User: Fold this.
Amino acid sequence: MFNIFQDNFKEDPYWWDDAPPLKLTVDEIPKKVDVVIIGSGYSGLSCAIELARAGTEVLVIDKVEIGSGASSRAGGLTSGRAGVSKLINLEATVGDRRANEILEEADQAYTHLQDFIKFENIACDFHHCGRFMGAHSRRAYDKIAFKMIEYNKGKHQDFEMVTQAEQSKIVNSDYYKGGMFNHNAGTIHPAKYHGELVRLSIEAGVKLISNTLVKKITSTKSGKEVFTSNGSIKAESVMIGTGGYTDKLSPYHRKRIIPMSSTLIATEKIGRDRVNEILPLGCPVIDTKRIISYARRSPDGERILFGGRARFTPIGARKSTMILHETMVKIFPSLTDTQITHSWTGLMAFTFDFLPKLGVQDGNHYALACNGGSGIVMMSWLGRRAAQNILGKTNSLSAFQNLKYKTHPLYTGLPWFVPMVGTWYRFRDWTEEKIDKGR
Ligand SMILES: Cc1cc2nc3c(=O)[nH]c(=O)nc-3n(C[C@H](O)[C@H](O)[C@H](O)COP(=O)(O)OP(=O)(O)OC[C@H]3O[C@@H](n4cnc5c(N)ncnc54)[C@H](O)[C@@H]3O)c2cc1C
Assistant:
């Protein structure tokens, strides 16, 4: 039997070979700062940079190494409006006007990321290459053709349908039954981008402390007191950017965030020619399944990185790798004899209405929950918006601010229902494929 594991197989992100997480400690934790930010991912660091550049004294605290949350584990796919509403009927959820505002702001967030990377000279292998969403069935193709009308509203005409006959210029696989191409999307090296945010934070004067658990936040007469495993700090404001790793520190958020694991694998180097044969346009490809999977080139163009969800119950890294390898080969049979060098998993934050959240609760600011693969753009943006709220610098409210933040009476933070929902989603994906084959 073919051994899919290369000898030097690692259960760490492929990205960490270039940009590993950082252990940053201090002799003594500061007694007082203006703002404490909890979480050193994109939301925490984007907030920190904006605040520090406005002259605020900022401390970022993380319970593990800086950057070992979701932000250095992502697939590196970046987009605006397609990312934020792909899982829901946005108009039915928030109404026409708010839906338009959300889509506009998501586009603004993507444009901002591009400008930020350019003007700050951020070395993160960013490519504005577009993205293909391949339909896993003909029914799914019809559904995204309908969704495209929502995306192309007003001045935006950056989505187009691609038939199965035309798709070979983008992706070499019979698995997809045509799909939708989004011109306004790209790819990034997520850990290099994160590392550059650390650099900009430090240059702006932000203090970062890793391996320090924040246990409790209380309100005082003059602001906040933050209790950590290394002592307590007084602050005027607190920002919570804890994503899918949100713990009992904030019971309000814990009851409203559903942590979902997601896995990626990296193939061995197969060479640019083979990679270009599979993804000739160089853009990533995601599918339309409820349990999505996606493929992209590595930044050096030598490998395929393949992501998705292996299982909804905890299984080991090797088992997840085998399941993802099998899915990858189903889509790209030419990768059958390809070994895997890296496999890693991280936690994404979902909400009950599948929308990201920005706001203030118990006097603490928060920017949370990307709801799937749109966190690079959205969490960077919402972190920055949270900073503007803290500074009182906003002329207009973000479309993501003060959205209803639902919970469920039976949910306390342990996602017991996820395996059941996962099985149901898998069944629906499977039946759709079967019906398609029977047509
Ligand atoms: C495998 C995977 C693939 C993904 N692919 C993509 C993609 O292709 N494109 C995309 O846009 N998005 C993708 N995402 C989503 C994206 O990575 C996240 O949305 C984003 O990184 C979240 O950033 P964040 O700052 O909110 O949280 P994180 O980066 O998760 O940071 C939160 C931090 O808070 C810390 N923390 C939590 N509680 C405490 C506490 N009590 N005290 C101290 N520290 C605490 C954690 O240790 C963690 O480091 C992916 C996610 C995963 C896991």
The chain has one domain: 5-438. DSSP finds eleven helices and 19 strands in the chain.
